[in-house]
Amino acid sequence: MNKTKDRIDFLRKELTDLNYKYYVLDQSEVSDYQFDVMMEELKKLEKENPEYDNPNSPTHRVGGQITKIFPTVRHERRMYSLDNSYSFDDIKDWAVRISKSIDETVEYVCELKYDGLSISILYENGQLIQAVTRGDGFQGDDVTHNVRTIRSVPLHLKGKYPQRFYIRGEIIMPKKSLEKLNEDRKKEGLEPYANPRNTASGSLKLQDSEAVAKRGLDCYLYYVLTDDRKYSTQWDSLQNAKEMGFKVGNYAKLCSNLDEVTKFIEYWNTERYNLPFEIDGVVIKVNSISEQEELGYTAKSPRWAIAYKFKAEKVETQLLSVDYQVGRTGTITPVANLKPVLVAGTTVKRASLHNEDFIANMDLRINDKVFVEKGGEIIPKIVDVNYDKREPGTIKLEFIKNCPACGTPLVREIGEAAHFCPNEKACPPQVMGRMEHFVSRRAMNIDSVGAETVSMLYENGLVKDMSDFYTLKKEQLIGLDRMADKSAQNIIDGIEDSKKIPFEKVLYALGIRHVGETMAKKLAKRFKSIDGLQKATLEELENTADVGNKIALSIQEYFANPEHLILIKKLKDSGLHFETEDSQEEVSHILEGKTFLFTGKLTAFTRDHAEELVEKNGGRNISSVSKNLNYLVVGEKAGSKLKKAEQLGTVKIINEYQFLELFENEGINLTE
Ligand code: AMP
Ligand code: ZN
Asked: Which ligand 1 atom lies nearest to the CA of residue 301?
């Protein structure tokens, strides 16, 4: 007997079991601490004894694998979508159609329609083998590493299971997970995610499975597919899925007539707000598998199932007043203050009014009765005005003419929807907003200086723009609002440390209008230094991937302002990085001197990945078809760019796989 192997097996079994109880059954038996201790021991043993490694060990739940490109996998059996219905009449019609082919009384299984993204997971001999997204129904992306980190997805099965089968279900982001994620984002000064489904889908496509593990995704399963027909009903297959250790939930109901189906729908239409996750409807399935087979499929969906979609809840309330917020780039956002009202389970008090046109198009007036809706988005929308209830004598709502913070006349540029305050230099929310952005985590990452410190420093006249951070002295800080020696030192240290931040982040930190994090990265790569960027012509800027005319103009405008040049000079003198370190990131030079452009819908990889690959291998991405373009890589439904390239005749036109071959032929490994 091998003691180490025994111990490893024991720990794996214990941890798997505890994990199952906690994440699938919602029971906790041991403290987090005990769990962690066992996990640490297992990790250590696996590290010391790599011969026992196993991809389905509970240690793999925390992730660590990077997927550069998610390989495309064909579904052995197509993943259909569902027919939608919005009324009980639709359901009745559907049942009548069924009764034309089936003589018996039909039993139905009603299930929740989880609002996430569907997934197909392959198990062989009780082990998780592969997880693939739905994609276009015929082929999807292999996201196995990322799915392994979802705690409720079993890595190996319990009880009796078919030797080989697929199970399908929905990956969702529970309300709590999204809240937590958004709290973190808020702390970092990032926009919160608005929609749980999109966030779930974005999370599953992160390259780093460790980051996926932290997102708190969950997975509910609802369909078992075996080669031989193992189950006689959908209901039985759900019960068996539960026994195998899958999270199925206890929401499904077996119904013997349409009345029961209707009751199920009505119940969940209101009760859905109390669920820990979002649903967008109910799915009704014919229970008997032989009846399902008889009914078959249309070109797009099974005839034996139908989705009933809930309508977004629309509630009437009153518009009390309008506030105008000033963002860090001076953009003015009108915000409605509403009479508090319960919509989709949460109290709504405010809603964005977007801009002047939105207000004008709706002809909104103070005291109007308005309809507020919460669809898949977290932020409520005003969708309509109840004009019948309008009080006489109300007057059109006028957009403000002056900045609410500094009084400067507002500007609205031609072609722009938003107003902005041009008093960039002295408008307090702009000045402070810029500095908050500057110190934020993804920019200069000075975490000893938060929003409160920024406003304190500003109000005490110590910091008027970001360059002043670098001349601050500890003595100036001590004594400010009970600031202790230690916190003052922390601030000074944090600022000093930030001098090491690389150019791409410094560029982002400057807060140039329309230059976000990704854009800053691209610009830094292409132009190498702030001087290079400043010298770039409009054409050169526009010829950089994704830099459109609007961004190019905004960059030129930024450098045309002498105050910005003074600011940059001061920051340079303080020792900040304004050049890229010679990029050690380059993998090869095989694409040296070659230019690329991607068009159409890519399926083998995302456009960002592809562009990164080009750059890391010495090539360059450009944004339009011209004589300067060497390769046009075409995905599905490529349009005008493809035509133009064909007309030019000088461009090599290749598909995604031929693009990948460029690397593989050179022996470059694209997956890690
Ligand atoms: P739709 O995307 O509106 O066409 O709806 C079809 C999708 O609903 C499927 O692709 C599944 O991802 C999803 N779905 C959610 N819950 C269920 C369920 N209980 N049974 C079947 N499909 C479901
Ligand atoms: Zn202002």
From this structure: 4
**If you write DSSP's letter for every residue of 647-672 in order, what string do you get?**
HH--SEEEEHHHHHHHHHTTT-----
308 lines ligand 1 (CB under 6 A): no
End-to-end Cα spacing for the chain = 35
Residue stretches of the chain with pLDDT short of 50: 672
Which CATH code of 1.10.287.610, 2.40.160.40, 3.40.50.300, 3.40.50.2000 fits the domain covering 3-62?
1.10.287.610
What CA–CA distance (Å, rounded) separates 491 from 446?
8
- Tokens 């898949």 belong to residue: 376
CA angle at residue 180 from 432 to 116, to 5 degrees? 120
Q: Please state which CATH class domain 314-389 belongs to.
A: mainly beta
Task: Reduce the DSSP state of residue 284 to 3 states and report it.
Answer: strand
Q: Tell me whether strands 313-326 and 369-374 are parallel, antiparallel or unpaired.
A: antiparallel
Q: Same fold for the domain at 314-389 and the one at 428-500?
A: no
Pick the CATH number of 428-500 from 3.40.50.620, 1.20.1290.10, 2.60.40.1120, 1.10.150.20: 1.10.150.20
Query: Which pLDDT value is given to residue 672?
Result: 41
* Whether residue 525 has its Cβ less than 6 Å from ligand 1: no
Q: Can you give the pLDDT at residue 122? A: 97
Number of H helices, E strands in the chain: 24, 20
In the annotation, is 113 catalytic?
A: yes
Ligand nearest to the CA of 234: 1
d(CA 104, CA 514): 63
Q: Is 268 in the pocket of ligand 1 (CB under 6 A)?
A: no
Report the pLDDT value the prediction gives residue 393, as an integer from 0 to 100: 86
* Local structure of 351: helix, strand or coil: strand
pTM: 0.70
* DSSP secondary structure, 216-274, as one string: --EEEEEEEEESS---SBHHHHHHHHHHHT----S--EEESSHHHHHHHHHHHHHHGGG
